[in-house]
TrEMBL record:
Matching Pfam families: F420_oxidored, TYRAAT1_C
Keyword Oxidoreductase applies: yes
InterPro entries noted in UniProt: Arogenate_DH_2 (IPR012070), NAD(P)-bd_dom_sf (IPR036291), P5C_Rdtase_cat_N (IPR028939), Prephen_DH (IPR003099), TYRAAT1/2 (IPR045011), TYRAAT2_C (IPR059064)
Region (Disordered): 306-335
Lineage top rank: taxon: Eukaryota
Protein's name in the database: Prephenate/arogenate dehydrogenase domain-containing protein
One record GO biological process: tyrosine biosynthetic process
Key words, A-Z: Oxidoreductase
Entry keyword annotation includes Oxidoreductase: yes
Domain Prephenate/arogenate dehydrogenase residue range list: 32-312
Organism: Citrus sinensis (Sweet orange)
GO molecular function, one term: prephenate dehydrogenase (NAD+) activity
Length: 335
């Protein structure tokens, strides 16, 4: 109501008053310390959202290539993972390339982390990191596998209604751990994502048929060279959008979708078969039309002859030389 507005205005003018201190304390108590490992295209994109939701960030990458973005987010850089782990992040988030995930994971000094740490990944394939986590992480660590089904290009302005897939692979049973994972998921829920809880197994099945095929078509069309024309149809515009959507992603990412999802090869083969079969349908139709034009009259005569012979056969079946007639019709069948 209007009273509330008046009070807020006073708050803004006196930043050190009790209420604003309370607010700061509240934010601190609900905020997570999130270590982002792999500060590339996608890692930065996610880090911006974590900062918007008042979480504290720590950053590691092979090199400090984006200091401006980090400074904007108030996120210190750690070249050495030992130093980062000693600061005891609540969440360690892997946003490395699919291909490098195993070696990065093995390089993390787990013993320097809190005994209860939540590991999260955002890889575009899911069974692969799930299995790596289960294999390498200490038993006490929690595991959340996620796939935000959007990127810096497709979700430039808002995350509203965009699917966020997650699988609580291993979350310890105490309240703190349950709250921690919910706080993390809340970032995506509050941004308006459509939260989809799903097993990593099912994710990979669906994603090979949808995401991998989408990336493949985007890359095929890019290589083919689609260009805007003065008479773009709506359909053509969607093709141009598709190319825009996929061309920003690294080849490492695309290759990862192929190599680390066991369903992708089959989908690639199905795509190739579908293309081949459409081609055959076109050519088949074309050949039928040509043949009619070239041999049309001859074929019509043949057909008349065939009908004549068949009726002759019927007549002879009632009488004498059946064998001869059936041989004739067999020969015709084969022609
Ligand atoms: P990417 O090419 O898949 O990954 C780039 C990141 O991986 C960079 O931080 C890079 O480190 C790191 N990296 C690459 N090779 C490495 C190596 N040998 N050792 C250590 N680190 C290495 O591009 P991305 O788009 O940023 O994707 C990151 C992850 O998010 C991927 O797993 C991807 O599947 C997933 N994802 C991406 C999107 C998207 O729209 N882009 C959407 C959903 C999920 P440096 O920073 O040191 O170069």
């Amino acid at each position: 109501g209007p009273l509330r507005h008046v009070i807020r205005a006073i708050d803004a003018a006196q930043p050190f008053d009790y209420e604003s201190q309370l607010h700061t304390q509240y934010v601190k108590s609900t905020s997570l310390k999130i270590a982002v490992i792999g500060f590339g295209n996608f890692g930065q994109f996610l880090a911006k959202a974590f900062a918007r939701h008042h979480h504290t960030l720590l950053v590691h990458s092979r090199s400090d290539h984006s200091p401006a973005v980090r400074q904007q987010l108030n996120a210190p850089f750690f070249a050495d993972l030992n130093d980062l782990c000693e600061l005891h992040p609540d969440v360690v988030l892997l946003s490395t390339s699919i291909l490098s995930t195993q070696s990065v994971l093995k390089s993390i000094p787990f013993q320097r982390l809190k005994r209860s740490t939540l590991f999260v990944d955002v890889l575009s394939v899911k069974e692969f990191p799930r299995n790596l986590f289960l294999k390498y992480l200490p038993q006490d660590f929690d595991i959340l596998c996620t796939h935000p089904m959007f990127g810096p290009e497709s979700a430039k302005s808002s995350w509203e209604n965009l699917p966020f897939m997650y699988d609580k692979v291993r979350i310890g049973n105490d309240e703190e751990r349950i709250k921690r994972v919910d706080k993390f998921l809340d970032v995506f829920a509050k941004e308006g994502c459509r939260m989809v809880e799903m097993s990593c197994f099912d994710h990979d099945k669906y994603a090979a048929g949808s995401q991998f095929v989408t990336h493949t078509m985007g890359r095929v069309l890019e290589r083919f060279g689609v260009e805007s024309s003065p008479i773009n149809t709506k359909g053509y515009e969607t093709l141009l959008d598709l190319v825009d959507n996929t061309k920003g992603d690294s080849f490492d990412l695309y290759y990862g979708l192929f190599m680390y999802n066991k369903n992708s090869l089959e989908q690639l083969q199905r795509l190739e078969m579908a293309f081949e079969s459409i081609k055959q349908q076109l050519f088949g139709q074309m050949f039928r039309v040509y043949r009619k034009e070239l041999f049309g009259s001859a074929e019509e005569e043949e057909e008349e002859e065939r009908v004549r012979l068949l009726s002759a056969t019927k007549e002879t079946q009632n009488g004498a030389p059946v064998e001869q007639a059936s041989v004739d019709s067999e020969r015709l069948e084969g022609s």
